[in-house]
UniProtKB/TrEMBL annotation:
Residue ranges of the TM segments: none
Domain annotation Ubiquitin conjugation factor E4 core: ranges: 4-75
Pfam families according to UniProt: Ufd2P_core
Protein name, as recorded: Ubiquitin conjugation factor E4 core domain-containing protein
Entry GO CC: cytoplasm; nucleus; ubiquitin ligase complex
Domain of life (superkingdom): Eukaryota
GO annotation terms (biological process): ERAD pathway; protein polyubiquitination; ubiquitin-dependent protein catabolic process
Pathway assigned in UniProt: Protein modification; protein ubiquitination
GO molecular function, a single term: ubiquitin-ubiquitin ligase activity
Classification lineage: Eukaryota, Viridiplantae, Chlorophyta, core chlorophytes, Chlorophyceae
Region span, Disordered: 79-105
Organism for this UniProt entry: Tetrabaena socialis
């Protein structure tokens, strides 16, 4: 929803949303999460590709706006490598981004 997205394009939420996207991608795509074993993932709704897809859907929705892109690339935690990792996951698991988009809209 464009009205909801617009709330995340102004401070203080713009910087916090940029940090959230970067932090979640780093956590979900990092080594620690790759080794994580969840005994009953369905009980906790833990589906790694869907979780990453949700974060990427948010990033794609807000990334259409220059103000958000600027906030992301000026974050101290920003790295091209991290963004490539998220992009690879989106390409490999595109159906999960689609699921997430349906959930976000």
């Amino acid at each position: 929803d464009p009205a909801i997205a617009s709330a995340f394009l102004h401070e203080p939420l713009r910087g916090k949303a940029a940090f959230l996207v970067l932090s979640c991608l780093e956590l979900l795509l990092g080594d620690a999460c790759k080794k994580l074993q969840v005994a009953k993932p369905e009980q906790y709704s833990f589906d790694l590709p869907v979780l990453v897809g949700s974060v990427l859907a948010l990033q794609l929705q807000l990334g259409q706006h220059a103000a958000f892109v600027e906030a992301v690339v000026t974050e101290p935690d920003y790295s091209d490598e991290g963004m490539r990792g998220g992009g690879s996951m989106a390409t490999a698991e595109g159906r999960h981004v689609g699921k997430a988009r349906g959930w976000l809209s």
